[in-house]
Amino acid sequence: MKFTVLRKQLKALSRFSATKDIRYYLCGIHVVQDNRGTYLESTNGHILGRLLIDETPCETQCSVIIPNDAIKTLAATGKKGDETLFFTVDGAKITVIGIDSTTYTFGALDGNFPKCDQVMPKNLDDSQIAPSTYNPNYVMAFHDCAADLSGNKNPNGVAVSFKQRGNDSGIVALDCTDLFIGIIMPMRDNCINPNIPAWCNRPTVKPLETETATI
């Protein structure tokens, strides 16, 4: 299995990986090659990101899970993030040729990555739109992902759109690329229905007029 990926793409998808999770196979980025092309996907069980990095289809499916430690090392090998990393996977051995032809070797994570297609909504229509409550840390992960991919670190320079579906999973899109899709699970036990509180609609009184002092 061989593929190339930009350093910033690894960093961006690492935003959704689990850390210190007993489900160790979630602590990394899953790289898949199949008839769709080559794509990255990662999830912590609450948020998921998937990014197509090569549209060339493959006749047979193959995949590998790159561990977080490897991602952290590779994400620090450049400054702009546009540097290309060349991967070769042989069994559980991952070899990467990076900046200035530096070679890195890592071990792939064992285990079966979740079948993310199962959480991808198949039929979407506007009748499903309903307010949702999301963990703000997970919302921020998508913003950081967009900043990584676009290279724009200005907080106001990236846009993230959420299609809220009540207690069902939300769909996330980034304005910087149409090759990314995200999923975010709502906080079902903490769902609130936003309303304007009564005190905001209470008519205000006239301001107190002050007398001008004269000498």
Q: How would you portray this structure in words?
A:
The chain is of the alpha+beta class and 215 residues long. The protein contains three helices and eleven strands; from the N terminus they run βαββββαβββαβββ. β3 and β4 form a beta hairpin. α1 crosses α2 and α1 runs antiparallel to α3. The N and C termini lie far apart (91 Å). The mean pLDDT is 88.
What descriptive keywords fit this protein?
11 strands, alpha+beta, elongated, 215 residues, seven-stranded antiparallel β-sheet
Poorly predicted parts: none
Strand element count: 11
Query: What would the principal axes of the Cα set say about the shape?
Result: elongated
Name the strands of the widest sheet in spatial order. Answer: 5-2-3-4-11-10-9
SSE order: EHEEEEHEEEHEEE
The percentage of residues in β strands lies in 25-35%
Summarize model confidence as the mean pLDDT: 88
Tell me the distance between the termini: 91 Å
Discrete helix count = 3
Main sheet record: 7 strands, antiparallel
In helices, the fraction of residues equals: 10-25%
What is the SS-derived class? alpha+beta
Radius of gyration: 23 Å
Oligomeric status: single chain
